[in-house]
Amino acid sequence: MTAGKTEIWFYHLERSSLDDVLPGLLEKTLDRGWRAVVRVSDGDSATRIDERLWTYRDDGFLPHGRSGEPHAERQPILVTESLENPNAAQALFIVDGSELGDTEAYDRCFILFDGRDDTALTGARERWKALKAAGADLAYWKQSPEGRWEKAA
Q1: Cα distance between the two ends of the chain
Q2: Cα(108)–Cα(90) distance, rounded to whole angstroms?
């Protein structure tokens, strides 16, 4: 990674849902010692993701909070509709086609989109083209038939 340049990784979801993929990526983020912002498009998405992070495993949960709640700035994972980075996160997760905003404060940005949804797929392609034209440091990940993530571009 070039100093000061955010890596932007696109995750094309075809075999797994966002609810299946997001917790694992967030676990890896925390394992790196990073904090994360999960940017959603609306309050319904925030509620769904909030609930999923509490319940995705029988033997644990991912520590997180929502923007607007007390001590949001102390949360290792923050679910928000805002373009801000109140918890000084190194990783930004863009879900549900939410606004990308400025990525300079982050080391890595993950754009997760449902490849089975034509609107999401078109939006991701347009976002890729615009970021590529702007000289962004991009990577494209897709799932193998076995469900493993493989870098495709």
Answers
A1: 15
A2: 7
